[in-house]
Amino acid sequence: MCDMIKSQPTQKISKMKKLRRTLSESFSRIALKKDDNTFDEICVTRMSTRKCQGMESVIKPMDTIPEDKKVRVQRTQSSFDPFEKTANQVKRVHSENNACLNFKSPSVGKESPKVRRHSSPSSPTSPKFGKTDSYEKLEKLGEGSYATVYKGKSKVNGKLVALKVIRLQEEEGTPFTAIREASLLKGLKHSNIVLLHDIIHTKETLTLVFEYVHTDLCQYMDKHPGGLHPENVKLFLFQLLRGLSYIHQGHILHRDLKPQNLLIGDTGELKLADFGLARAKSVPSHTYSNEVVTLWYRPPDVLLGSTEYSTCLDMWGVGCIFIEMIQGVAAFPGMKDIQDQLERIFLILGTPNEDTWPGVHSLPHFKPERFTQYGPKNLRQAWNKLSYVNHAEDIASKLLQCFPKNRLSALAALTHDYFSDLPPRLWELSDMSSIFTVPNVKLQPEGGESMRVFAKNNTFGKSLSNSKH
To answer: Which CATH number applies to 216-468: 3.40.640.10, 1.10.510.10, 1.10.3720.10, 1.10.10.10?
Structure first.
C-alpha cells in the first residue's frame, strides 16, 4: 500500500512531462493556424472548466492533422501577413499555453527547447525580418499622398532595399491601395515584377520592403532625351510585355502603367512596380472605377466613361509608352482635361463611330457633337521615328486601337514580327530568369546621335544575328 502511494507522484510527473513534450511539439504548428479564434476559445474554455486537464484532446500532435491542413500550417509559418490578425493571437496563445504548462508541472524547472525557440529569439539583439529596426533608412527617394519611399539597407543581409512607408490614420485605417498592393505582390514572382521582400506593420505605419532598383523609365528617358536607342526600346518593350503577360494570365490588371512605374536596374532589367491600383479581375468581368491610369496613358474607352474593361486597358498604356521611348515625347500629352486628351487621340487615330467602334455611342461621355470629326492617319505621320525600325509602326498601331477588343494582347505582342530578330532563347526563359542571362543581350550606350546612326545603318538585326545560333 505504501509503495503504491509513493509511485503515484512519480507517475504523475511522468505523465506531466509527456504532456509537456506533446504541447511543445505541436504548439508552434497550431498557434499560427488561421482559425486562431476557434482554437483560443476552445483552449480558454477547457482551461477554465477542467483546469488544463485533458489538453491532449485540444492540442493534437502533427501526425494527427490531416494532410491538407499540414500544408496550410507550413505555408503560414513561412510568411508574414499584416492583414491577418495573427500577432496578438499568437502572443495570447503563448501566454495561455505557458500558464497551462506552469499549472500542470510547477516542479519542472527546465523549459522545453522547442517552446523556447518559438517564444523568444535566440539572440534578442540580432536583427530579424518583419521588424522595423531590421532596416536602416539611408535617404528619401520620394513622397506621395499617403506614403514616403526611402532607400534603405537590410541589417539582416546587408542588401539595399526600398522602404515604402505608408502612414496609417486611426480614423481611416490602412489605405486600401496599400492592402491591395501588398496582397497582390505577395503572390507575384517574376523577374520583370518588383520583388516584395518584407512587410512591417506597426500602429503608426505599414512598411513594404522592396528590392532596390536605382531608377525608373521616366528618369531614364529624361537623362537621354530625343528618343532611346532602338535596341534598348525593343528590350524594354519585350520585358514590359513579358511582365504584363505574366500578371494578365493570373487575371490581374495593373491599371496604372506609366514610365514612373517601370523600374530600370543597372543591367537594364525592367520591373513593373506600384500595384496600388492593380486589381485581381474575376471572370466574368465586373465593372470597375474609371478613375484609373494617369491621364496621358488612359485609353479612350475609360476616358469616355467605360467601367467594363479587361487586360486591354493595360495594353493601351503599353502603346503610349512605346511611342514615348522611341520618339522622345509623350504620345498624347493632354494639357487641359479629358476632352483635350480625347481630341489629341482622335486627331491621329480618327474620331470613332459605330462602324469603327461598335457600342461607342452607348458610352456615358460620348457625344458626337462634342468632337471634331477626324480621319485616321498613318502613325509615322505623327511619330516619324517609327519608320526607322522594321515593324515598329505595325505593332504600335495594333496596341493603339480605340476599340478595346482590337488591341493586341501582351502574349500575342511578344510574338510580333517586331521582335523577330531577338534570340529565340528569350521565349524559353523561366519566369524568374532575366533576359540579360541570354548571351549578347545587353543595353546599348545611349547618345543623341544613336537614332540617326541606327536609321542610316539599321544594324540592330546584325548585332544579334549570331546570338540566334
So the answer is: 1.10.510.10
Looking at residue 166, its pLDDT comes to: 86
Of 84, 88, 82, 90, whose CA–CA distance to 201 is shortest? 82
Sequence-separated contacts (24+) of 438-445 with Cβ below 8 Å: 438/467, 439/467, 440/464, 440/466, 440/467, 441/235, 441/467, 442/267, 442/268, 443/229, 443/231, 443/232, 443/235, 443/267, 443/268, 444/229, 444/231, 444/232, 445/229
CA–CA distance, 87 with 81 (Å, rounded to integer): 9
* Of 153, 281, 264, nearest in space to 216 by CA: 264
- Quickly list DSSP for 361-391: GGSTT--GGGS-------HHHH-GGGGGSTT
pLDDT range class, residue 78, cuts 50, 70, 90: very low
Asked if 246 contacts 410 with a C-beta cutoff of 8 angstroms, the reply is no
Query: 340 catalytic, yes or no?
Result: no
Q: CATH second-level architecture of 134-211?
A: 2-Layer Sandwich (3.30)
Give the model confidence (pLDDT) of 384-399 as tens digits: 999 999 999 999 999 9
Alpha helices in 61-216 (DSSP H): 67-77, 87-104, 113-119, 176-185
In the set 36, 198, 216, 256, the catalytic residue is 256
**Closest by Cα among 257, 280, 263 to 185:** 280
Q: Please state, in angstroms and rounded to a whole number, the distance separating the CA atoms of residues 101 and 12.
A: 14
